[in-house]
Design goal:
This protein has 265 residues and is of the alpha+beta class. It contains 6 helices and 15 strands.
Length: 265
């Protein structure tokens, strides 16, 4: 599937985090939170997650709470119960919610989220993508699955199956599609890499299509370092695979056997 500009609209305002332990889905979540009248939680110290043995975080991102999103969220909550947490920038009435503002404020202490605005087509989307990755680092998880709201899954069990299938796989970046510039020379996003990465016979540029992806903490830390060194970031679908390949990390596309249960709408 060729990625086009029309496929890149990624305004993000809600993040649903699920935490997976080897068999039992029981992370140790610690936060100073105040219960709200509508069932949500808000904490002045933000959202802290400590893992004793868990290795994977799953993040669901959306900018609205329409019927489709509510249905998807409830599937995940039904599957994972209280281990599902919705992080919101505004009150959308989704279950298991926590205010996103506290996380964003904490992130600003270590990462300039304005630099992340160009990782998505819309500045808000980029800031939320950055916040999601910082949440993954804060969780101490080894890997994070990032799922956009245009990815449909039939049930929460399908998401569990996808995550568990790769739980012990050491790949740093796992998108839906992965290609080099030679495979898709007309791709509109190559220009984003100018001045950000070396470009010669030994330094090839790469692209991806990743409305659902898995990313390692190692790659996230490399992305933070790239921002610190270059002073800017660009659209994540060329940046992540190029960063991974030029730093001797590993990439694997998601097995198509999951497309019968989890696919792009």
């Amino acid at each position: 599937m060729k990625a086009t500009p029309q496929m890149k609209a990624k305004p993000l305002a809600v993040i649903l985090g699920l935490f997976f332990h080897t068999i039992a889905v029981r992370p140790n979540i610690q936060a100073q939170q105040e219960k709200k009248a509508d069932g949500g939680t808000e904490g002045a110290m933000g959202y802290m997650v400590n893992f004793s043995d868990a290795n994977t975080l799953v993040v669901y991102m959306t900018h609205y709470a329409g019927a489709h999103v509510r249905d998807q969220v409830h599937k995940l909550v039904d599957e994972f119960g209280d281990n599902a947490t919705v992080l919101e920038t505004k009150r959308l009435g989704l279950p298991n919610s926590i205010a996103m503002e506290s996380i964003s404020k904490d992130v600003n202490h270590t990462v300039d989220l304005k630099h992340w605005e160009r990782t998505s087509l819309k500045p808000e989307g980029g800031r939320m993508f950055g916040s999601a990755l910082m949440l993954a680092l804060e969780s101490k998880a080894d890997y994070a699955w990032i799922i956009e709201n245009d990815v449909f899954f039939k049930s929460g069990k399908d998401v569990r199956s996808l995550v568990e299938a790769y739980r012990d796989h050491g790949t740093d970046f796992m998108p839906v599609k992965f290609f080099s510039e030679n495979m898709n020379p007309e791709w509109v996003w190559w220009h984003d890499l100018d001045g950000l990465f070396p470009h010669d016979e030994e330094h090839v540029w790469y692209g991806s299509f990743a409305p659902i992806m898995r990313i390692s903490a190692k790659l996230i830390r490399a992305l933070v370092l790239l921002d610190q060194q270059a002073g800017r970031l660009e659209f994540f679908e060329p940046v992540l695979p190029t960063l991974a390949m030029q730093n001797n990390m590993t990439i694997k596309t998601m097995d198509e056997k999951f497309s019968g249960h989890v696919w792009i709408t």
